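SAMPLE LOG
Freezer: B-3
Tube label: C17
Construct: single chain, 127 aa
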Amino acid sequence: MKGFNMLIASIALFFALNLSAQQSVLPALVPNQMAKQRVENELNNLKQAHIVNPSKAIESKLDLYMKALEFLNEATIIPPTTDYAVTSAFLNHEVDFNQANDSEAFYRFYNKQWKQEFIDLVNLVKS
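STRUCTURE (predicted):
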């Protein structure tokens, strides 16, 4: 599973870099460290909300935010950008949680067919 996630992340990075040369799909986002703090804080809130009122919607949002934090925390020489982490989280979440194939996930991302939970994540880490 880790290898598959790395493949998805690599493809996402390729497309993110390719797309950034043309036009970014995402708005300007905060740097990695600030994004980590914001996502961690929101994860704590979501975990509490899930304890009080467990639901599929909160579970899905938790999964997405945990994926974003995982990519933000990747142990690399140069920390991953917030754009990379958010893009990778979206693609992996679509495949893992929403049973989309890779092509569907890319199509949804680049055509901004985003669920509210992803819009909330983008707004959370927006500059």
